[in-house]
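Form 12-C: Joint structure prediction
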Amino acid sequence: MMTTDCDAVIVGTGPGGSTVADVLTAAGWSVIMLEKGANHLLALESPYEGLGRITNDEIKFMRRWFLGPDPFLEPRTFRRSDADGERLLTGEVNNLPSTVGGGGFHADGKLPRFRDVDFKAASELGPIDGADVVDWPVDYDEMEPYYAAAERIIGVAGDHTGNPFAAWRSGPYPMPPGPDMYCAIVTSEAAVERGLHPYRAPTGVNSVEYDGRPACNNCGFCAYFGCPIEAKGDPIAPLRNALRTGRCEVRPESYVVRVDLDGTSRTAQGVTYLDVDGMEHVVRARNVVIAAGAFETPRLLLRSEVGNSSGNVGRYLMYHFQTYTLGLFPFRLHAYRGRAVTHLHDDFLAPDAAALAAARDAGLPYFRGGIVEHGGAAHPMMEAVHTPAGAHHSRTMLQSPMRDRMAAFTMQGEDLPQRTNRIDLDPAIRDVWGFPAGRVTYQPHRHEIAASRHWAPLLETVMKDAGATHTFSVTSPPLAGEPGADTPFMASVSRHIMGTTRMGSDPRTTVCDPWQRLHDVENVMVADSSVFPTSAGYGPTLTIVALAVRAARALAGLEPLRSQRPAPDTELGRFSAV
Amino acid sequence: MPIWFEEREHAVVRAAVHRLIPACEDHPGAADAGAADYIDGLLGAFLVDPPRIFAGGPFSGRYGGDPGFERFTPLTRHQELAWRTRIEGSQGRAEREFNGPVVGLQEVYREGLAKLGADFCDVDGDEQDRRLDALPAFKHLLYEHACEGTYGAPEYGGNRDCLAWVAIKFPGDVQPRGYTDEEVSGRV
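Section 2 - Result
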């Protein structure tokens, strides 16, 4: 029997990998976590205190890539299709932090659950030409207790009575919502008047002291910054839980080169990685968990030549198709204070008769949009950069149309899975370790575009009702012929990256099995949004964490979690969608 | 005293950022906010230790707490490679050229300022604008740096005494005070 260094080696320390580490160490397993980025989050020795490097500092976080990936060290490339040649862009493409804590670090922590239909798009809504819409190998009823566990691990504040489109819940949120942002109060009131159903967003930000961490103090440097006072649970809560068991070792600046297989090629022996000095090391482990994110996970599998008998590693890449509707107000909204986004509405996830008619006019059987975030705010440096240089610059900044007078709706539109949208290895561009950069080949399906075109005018109407004097809408990626379509903004700016090692029961068409293990290699599991078969119109993080709890418990041989749907005559049951 | 620019270069930078982000009533503009000092600090980041790339934390001290911003964060080996390459250029060194040669910001500035002309400070504003417009890539770089140096944290050398934040009524980095619930939800 081969001697091993640990029960599981986990590649990546974001929400997925940290959750797996939490669950496995609680079950008595030993784990080693390898993270290619540096550690700015917490001391790796007891008592695992914060390092004090997370700050309200626009230069550090918005201009100098403190959390990585630095586009010089870790460039990525982009093209829309093979017809574009090898690449159109090199540099920043869908960057999620490359650091201990991963994508959880920069997120502002809106953590909605999916709904029942999101796991059954093919059987309940049907196919769409040009896309591979499929059901998930798990349904909402099975996922519910894992969602509840994920909400407890991270610490989610929310109001279970607010959202008529929400799926059933076995219990309330762990915390009540935090204070509503003024700009969201203004836009929500207007949305209600137009028949929409805004509600207080479930947010992984403490509204009261929780799990030994303080309540949020509304500093406003939320999305892209990380929390200086640890009021945000993702990623620090599960990571610190794992470290406190004494059975988890985190090795930052450790770049995994490949997954190593044994002679049968059906079993992994561990991984090989490079340390910060470029020295090669091997970790032998009974299990390998890859949680590097939906961009880096397929890249690692492709360069390892592991797990790809289906030919689908890297394929079915999905983002959210983002529609931004911006409104300029004659009064100040001070959206730079608070949690970035405090309200959502889900109406566009359940298309009405008008939306179905618009879909048919576009030659589609249906379309769906996504959650709409009620937000605003840019910090002053970003406002300055987006203000034209010259004589009027300072006067415009005094008026502050973007930072202080702008409200924004962001629709995270569902993006259909297409086999041609993919991550592969760039033929020429290299990272600092000498390996091929990841390359995106992506263009949206007409479904996303039709949904955006249908709902953007309504969002502009709501904005005007709320008091905006000027409104406009833009999308990411931009549509052909519209501003930005032929510029560095042609790549999606979405950080919601999904679907590149999709899971399912058929090894001919999917990469991972329903428990997120590679069909080809029994002891390798993927624990991030790579496994998503479809993108739904919700932020992915809570579902990543819930799936990670489910898969890690199964890996550790623990009983599945179960939960009870509340009876209709109970307080919880009354607020559960049919 | 600039740490990297020569005095006359610093004066040209100061004059140029004044055209991009001018002063007006109630606003100091980039020149008086110290944007040229910010750019000088970036180009000379490696003349001090730790390099002035990433301010420390968790707080600046402006709203209480330990004033940690002024203690800059030591760079990791990779961060040093990236920022030395970005600032100094690749200079033919293999470890900086894994995707080809990189022209550094120091060289870009030295050449750009030379092209603006030794008499840049002495010509009128319209002529200064014409010379900047003739160098669109350099103008854009200067402009982005002027924005950073005007509205970034003062620890990076610009936004002197938080003048720009005071002008636009932005409280800046408010940790550990934050905002009260009333300040978040209320109309003002």
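Section 3 - Comments
Residues 7-185 of chain B form one domain. The CA atoms of residues 132 and 141 of chain B lie 11 Å apart.
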